[in-house]
Structure formats: C-alpha cells, structure tokens
Amino acid sequence: MTYLSQFPKAKLKPGAPLKPKLNPKKARAYGPGIEPSGNTVLRPAVFTVDTVSAGQGELTVYIEDPAGTREEVKPVPNNDKNKTYTVTYIPRVSGMHKV
Question: Region Disordered: what ranges (predicted)?
Fold first, then answer.
C-alpha cells in the first residue's frame, strides 16, 4: 500500500499518541549465572540479558536468595546490536536464587 501525504512537512507533537511498543516479557536471560548447578557461594555468577525484542526502556535486575532477601544488581550494557547486558552477582547463601 502506498501512502501519499498531503502535509509533507508535518511533524508529530511531543506526547503524541504514538508510543514505542514495550514488552518486558520478551527480555531473555541466559548464561551460567542462572543455571541450577555450577554456581558457588561467594563466587561471582554471571549471566546475560537480551532486550532487543522487549523494546526500549530501563533494565532493572533483582536477585532473591532462598531466605527471601532481595538485592538489586546493576546490569552493564554491552553496547551491541542485540541490546544485551551483562549481570554479575555473588550468591551469599546456598540454594536456588530467583532473578
């Protein structure tokens, strides 16, 4: 379909109804830091978060240990085309952690 504009110099006003599509559920985490085995207490656990399909936005990561203690972890942008971030945390207790 071809669209011919009658107003070629028209610009959208700030706050116009067109907003970027965000879908946080499309962010994907992978890597050894979120695997059920192989991580050791007091050793850095590293994983990657891929946000390319989720849209633009701010990434916030929380780690919750088995005791229920919640800690915010700072993601480091990799500045690549897939908009990935590297996340490193140190498990303080043994057991399953929630990301």
Answer: 1-35
Domain residue ranges in the chain: 24-89
* DSSP assignment of 80-98: STT-EEEEEE---SSS--B
Mean pLDDT, each 10-residue run in order, the chain (99 residues)? 67 71 86 90 95 87 94 94 92 91
Output the six-digit token pair for 19: 């907003």
**Strand 28-30 and strand 76-77: pairing?**
unpaired
Cα 90 to Cα 51: distance, rounded to the nearest angstrom: 23
Only one residue has tokens 């989720």, namely: 54
Q: Which fold has domain 24-89?
A: Immunoglobulin-like (2.60.40)
In one-letter notation, the amino acid at residue 29 is A
